[in-house]
Specification:
Layout: E1 6-12, H1 19-30, E2 34-41, H2 48-55, E3 62-66, H3 73-82, E4 88-91, H4 103-107, E5 115-119, E6 126-127, H5 131-148, E7 160-163, H6 179-190, E8 195-199, E9 201-202, H7 216-236
Parallel strand pairs: 1-2, 1-4, 2-3, 5-8, 6-9
Antiparallel strand pairs: 4-7, 5-7
């Protein structure tokens, strides 16, 4: 493991049932390289922020950023990145779909690589969600890879370890959900950053409800928005 420090960004909205255990796992699995954990909460109605506020009393490097207006996932991640200080910035979903035990393993590939992303679609990775959601996501990512010539198999990963210097040249798309992932990979490839995909197993959340795919209409809507982003990037390049 490199001696570079790691900042963990956790974007939350109604994750009261998960956040305390997730934070505990992050501390356990990252260990001494952990510089800080930054929770960016969009004023969750279930008061996720209160749980984090209480935990921060006993963990000096746990920071809460409570935003009184809901601004969405990419914006929350960007806020966390802007307020982080570690050499490596990691972000992941807060519903245990992204395994915290992978964080150190991913960070080990930096600085050899600029970006390490958790990937369901390289050898050793898998998607354990229901068949319909898994197959649609797989097809979407295959098409995206072909259309954008990205050489990235999991364009909608959402699980990243990134060298801090990358953010000097790339800013996350501020709207949408999975679209920001597609744009991030596209921009990184275009600007010559080295990307490694690290295999992991993705599964459905155990507690709470998905913010983007909690019903069929939302699933279809977000799939459409991803396709639109892929086409826009292919033909406009920006």
């Amino acid at each position: 493991m490199s001696k570079e420090t790691i900042s963990i960004v956790l974007p939350t909205y109604n994750e009261k049932g998960n956040i305390a255990r997730l934070i505990s796992q992050v501390y356990k699995n990252v260990g001494k390289e952990l510089k800080e954990v930054i929770v960016v909460d969009d004023n969750s109605p279930d008061e996720t922020w209160k749980v984090v506020e209480e935990l921060s009393k006993t963990r000096n490097n746990l920071r809460l950023i409570r935003r009184l207006n809901k601004k969405g996932l990419p914006s929350a991640i960007s806020t966390g990145i802007e307020n982080s200080t570690g050499d490596i910035v990691v972000w992941l979903d807060c519903d245990f779909t992204h395994p915290t035990e992978m964080i150190k393993k991913m960070a080990e590939y930096i600085p050899e690589y600029d970006i390490v992303m958790g990937s369901r679609y390289v050898e050793g990775g898998s998607d354990k969600r229901n068949f319909f959601r898994a197959i649609i996501s797989r097809v979407l990512n295959i098409l995206g890879d072909i259309i954008l010539n990205s050489d990235v198999k999991d364009l909608t990963s959402g699980f990243y370890a990134v060298k801090r210097s990358v953010f000097k040249n790339i800013r996350l798309k501020q709207d949408g959900y999975a679209e920001y992932c597609i744009r991030f990979a596209f921009d990184a490839k275009r600007k010559g950053y080295k990307i490694k995909e690290f295999p992991y197993t993705f599964s459905d959340r155990k507690k709470g409800s998905s913010k983007s795919y909690n019903n069929l209409p939302n699933f279809i809507k977000n799939g459409y928005l991803c396709v639109r982003e892929i086409i826009r990037l292919r033909f406009s390049g920006r």
